[in-house]
């Protein structure tokens, strides 16, 4: 998917949301005609799946685990970046459209597979950081998979709360740091507040 088509799809999703989005809306945001879009993508779903693949690449590049010797600091920084999308004026509209796409997952296996990739990435990164923290004695002897599953749930829940209630990511970040301090850190270790 070209950068122009990514930008056009993003803009159209922000303006129209998922339910009302048409191929013509996306074409109107680009220099391409509707026919040109249909040449490459048979349906709106096909185009949105390609768009989600491009978003996944951006998401994983932005969230790769930071280089820090302290697993606690690295975990906090990772979750902080996961909870804080890039600043854009239309970010709330876009996140609302993404939530509407996520709502299609029970009815659409292809969307489910794409969305699962995002969750799997967050899970795998968190599991790796927690495992390293346990090996270094920074974290208690916890189950890294369970912690990672909890953090994916935290991430998804924070997204829903932000879109539906306007809850700031700061609230979730503060609660997460407290969770790390009270549930993960081994005795004698501390994590600096962000």
From TrEMBL:
- Molecular function, one GO term: transcription cis-regulatory region binding
Gene3D superfamilies assigned to the protein according to its UniProt record, in alphabetical order? Tetracycline Repressor, domain 2
The UniProt entry, under Pfam families, shows: TetR_C_6 (PF13977), TetR_N (PF00440)
Which PROSITE patterns does the UniProt entry name for this protein?
HTH_TETR_2
Keywords from the named record: DNA-binding, Repressor, Transcription, Transcription regulation
Ranges for domain HTH tetR-type: 1-59
Q: Which residues bind DNA?
A: 22-41
Q: What is this protein called?
A: DNA binding protein putative transcriptional regulator
């Amino acid at each position: 998917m070209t950068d122009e088509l990514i930008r056009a799809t993003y803009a159209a999703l922000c303006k129209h949301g998922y339910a009302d989005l048409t191929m013509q809306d996306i074409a109107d945001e680009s220099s391409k005609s509707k026919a040109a879009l249909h040449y490459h993508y048979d349906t709106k779903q096909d185009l949105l799946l390609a768009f989600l693949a491009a978003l996944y690449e951006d998401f994983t590049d932005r969230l790769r685990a930071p280089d820090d010797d302290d697993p606690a600091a690295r975990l906090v920084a990772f979750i902080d970046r996961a909870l804080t999308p890039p600043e854009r004026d239309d970010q709330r509209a876009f996140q609302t459209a993404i939530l509407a796409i996520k709502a299609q997952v029970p009815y659409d296996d292809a969307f489910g597979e794409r969305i699962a990739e995002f969750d799997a990435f967050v899970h795998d990164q968190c599991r790796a950081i927690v495992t390293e923290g346990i090996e270094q004695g920074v974290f208690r002897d916890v189950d890294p998979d369970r912690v990672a599953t909890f953090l994916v749930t935290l991430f998804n829940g924070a997204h829903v709360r932000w879109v539906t209630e306007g809850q700031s990511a700061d609230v979730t970040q503060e609660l997460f740091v407290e969770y790390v301090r009270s549930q993960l850190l081994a005795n004698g270790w501390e994590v600096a507040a962000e």
